[in-house]
Amino acid sequence: MEYRELGKTGEKVSTIGMGTWKIGSYSTSEERTRQLGALKRGFELGVNLVDTAEMYGAGRSEELVAEAIKGIRKDILIASKVSPENLHHDEVIRACRASLHRLGTPYLDLYQIHWPNPRIPIEETMSAMGELVDAGAVRFVGVSNFSVSETEQARAALSRSDVVSNQVEYSLTNRRVERDVLPYCVRENISLIAYSPLARGNIADSIPPTILHKYKMTSAQVMLNWATRDPHVIAIPKAAKASHLEENASSVSVRFEPAEYEQIGQD
């Protein structure tokens, strides 16, 4: 597994993390067991970043993560997110405490604003985030789905800490953030956490066969390798099946030539 720094924190996280959207939404005990097994398999493979949110599965995603990290909490970086409707000061504090309770941990490694909410002043939200950091309930602050200007406003509202990451959609077939968000993250040494790096299952069919054969990779593995070609990018594909975790974890075992990355991006 490849590891890289989370922003300017000095914290090393796996380049391929685990996303938990729809994890915790299950209708049978067998499905729950399968989801739990996938998370545990990811940790066994060296994945040390798991991303969840209070809105995923109405909190059950966080509860499943809590079960998966039993006995290994200190080795795992847990990222969660506060919902956009909970961004008033006191709501942020309550939401964080509720997430901590569901996760069974005294602190979150990374706490992110899930979506910006223009109806609530970012200064009010970040005041609460700063208090959570000061209290030791949160180690690092992140944002999600923020534009460059929104990120700058959020950073300016933090007095004693900084935004270390911006979680946005990024894949071979969705490259909008390359216009401004990714260059900004590179310039400011902020991690870009790429969600839906496999385009929600719409695996690209344009990847050159020569690259697939040369590196003995699947198209999904090539997509993850390509999305994380910049050291400021971390990908969090959904962790639904153990077999997918095994495929994802080995996607960055080797890096392509610069010309090959260009070729993949052009085809």
Question: What does this entry look like structurally?
Answer:
The chain has one domain: TIM Barrel. It is built from ten helices and ten strands. Strands 3-4-5-6-7-8-9-10 form an eight-stranded parallel beta sheet, with helices on one face. Strands 1-2 form a two-stranded antiparallel ribbon. The longest helix is centred in the first third of the chain and has 16 residues, at 29-44. The chain is of the alpha/beta class and 267 residues long. The two termini are 27 Å apart. Helix 1 (29-44) packs across helix 2 and helix 3 packs across helix 4. Strand 8, helix 6 and strand 9 form a beta-alpha-beta unit. The model has no long low-confidence stretch (mean pLDDT 95). Helices cover 39% and strands 17% of the residues.
Q: Residue ranges: pLDDT <50 for 5 or more in a row?
A: none
Number of helices: 10
Biggest β-sheet: strands ordered side by side in the sheet: 3-4-5-6-7-8-9-10
Outline type:
globular
Structural class: alpha/beta
Number of domains: 1
CATH architecture: Alpha-Beta Barrel
Alpha carbon gap, first and last residue: 27 Å
Radius of gyration: 18 Å
* Percentage of residues in strands: 15-25%
The CATH superfamily appears as: NADP-dependent oxidoreductase domain
CATH fold-type name: TIM Barrel
